[in-house]
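Incident log, support desk, overnight shift.

02:14 A customer reports that sequence design results differ from what the structure should imply. Their input is reproduced verbatim below. On-call engineer (initials T.W.) acknowledged and began investigating.
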């Protein structure tokens, strides 16, 4: 099979997230290829701090397929995920990962309202809230994180997370994510979402460790067994990727997780999409309605559109319930404002990299050094402007790693 066809196949598989990345380890052993090599970078980089090497290797493969749009889409997915791991958010949204969904323009008669407020209202009419994400967009995790406290007050007690690995059997006891907890959970915002949930008292459900045609059915059963089979009145939040929130599938015959759960539980889930109206540095790969919404309503917070009767607007009516629209990202000292807002900050010092670049800087809680870092940033070259990293409320340690993942610095943040 040619690399182009393999990339097309893996592009669709990749959207299914963590479990298939793990299962492809078997593929690498039996069938070495550029394709397996690409996805191995996403899995291995957090293990050995080889983010710089991983990014360089993926770019090298990407350069071989200039002009091949579909292969570029596929290669951009592991590349943008790696950029998200190392805090390079602007780069993560700079590369298209698929053709944009073009939707009918019906926004003229709609009005914007707070996404958080409307989701909370709608969540009271169901027992299952499903929120999707694009796996390279860390911003999407902040919506779920912002809802956790309020949904807890409404009786939600379970958080089911797609990316988690069954290898981490202690996450509910430990209360935070470590490297082996999962794949996307190695990104700091994802890890903080998990930490916040555990602080509030949520039971974390690991459900996604199957593959193939039975994946969605098996996942639904695991969520059911961990919640509704114990308490028929249970309330569950599910944070998942892309199409898993589809209640109906008009594209093909595949039945996704939302549909499987509805059939299994009899509950009509609230399905929330963040992936059809996303910003991109490559504007031609945005849904054109996204820019029209921004120009018309100028949202400053996550927003939902409703008609004059209060009915919510969806880019895929009948398939998912509602779309969330985020404003475009603004930046301060190279970091997204949504990422550093309300946190203490520390300015980067060249000695953390021994003045050799590229390098990776991590900020870790002093009392939980095995946890996923609170912040991680890749610095490609000697900065000519101020760069900041965010700090947790507890004492923390700065780690610096060279381009090969070797530690070159360790020191407390309190002395800086």
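02:41 Re-run completed on a clean worker. Output:
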């Amino acid at each position: 099979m040619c690399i182009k066809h393999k990339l097309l196949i893996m592009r669709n598989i990749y959207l299914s997230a963590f479990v298939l990345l793990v299962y492809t380890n078997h593929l690498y052993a039996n069938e070495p290829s550029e394709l397996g090599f690409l996805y191995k970078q996403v899995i291995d980089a957090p293990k050995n701090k080889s983010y710089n090497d991983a990014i360089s290797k993926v770019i090298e493969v990407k350069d071989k397929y200039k002009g091949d749009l579909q292969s570029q889409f596929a290669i951009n997915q592991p590349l943008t995920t790696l950029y998200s791991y190392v805090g390079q958010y602007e780069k993560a949204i700079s590369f298209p990962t698929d053709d944009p969904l073009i939707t009918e323009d019906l926004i003229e008669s709609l009005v914007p309202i707070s996404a958080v407020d409307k989701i909370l209202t709608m969540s009271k009419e169901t027992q299952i809230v499903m929120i999707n994400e694009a796996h390279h967009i860390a911003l999407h995790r902040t919506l779920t994180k912002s809802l956790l406290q309020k949904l807890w007050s409404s009786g939600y007690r379970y958080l089911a997370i797609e990316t988690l690995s069954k290898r981490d059997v202690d996450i509910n006891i430990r209360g935070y994510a470590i490297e082996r907890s999962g794949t996307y959970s190695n990104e700091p915002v994802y890890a903080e979402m998990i930490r916040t949930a555990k602080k509030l008292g949520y039971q974390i459900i690991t459900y996604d460790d199957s593959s193939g045609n039975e994946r969605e059915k098996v996942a639904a059963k695991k969520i059911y067994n961990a919640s509704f089979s114990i308490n028929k009145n249970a309330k569950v939040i599910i944070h998942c990727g892309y199409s898993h929130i589809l209640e109906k599938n008009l594209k093909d015959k595949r039945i996704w997780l939302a549909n499987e759960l509805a059939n299994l539980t009899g509950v009509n889930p609230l399905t929330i999409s963040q992936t059809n109206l996303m910003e991109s540095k490559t504007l031609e790969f945005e849904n054109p309605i996204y820019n029209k919404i921004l120009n018309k309503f100028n949202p400053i917070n996550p927003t939902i559109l409703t008609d004059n009767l209060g009915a919510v607007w969806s880019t895929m009516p009948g398939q998912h319930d509602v779309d969330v629209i985020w404003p475009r990202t603004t930046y301060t000292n190279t970091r997204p404002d949504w990422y550093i807002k309300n946190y203490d900050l520390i300015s980067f010092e060249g000695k953390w990299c021994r003045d050799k670049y590229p390098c990776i800087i991590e900020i870790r809680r002093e009392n939980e050094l095995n946890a996923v870092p609170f912040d991680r940033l890749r610095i490609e070259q000697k900065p000519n402007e101020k760069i900041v990293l965010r700090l947790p409320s507890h004492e923390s340690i700065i780690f610096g790693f060279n381009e090969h993942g070797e530690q070159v610095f360790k020191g407390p943040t309190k002395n800086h």
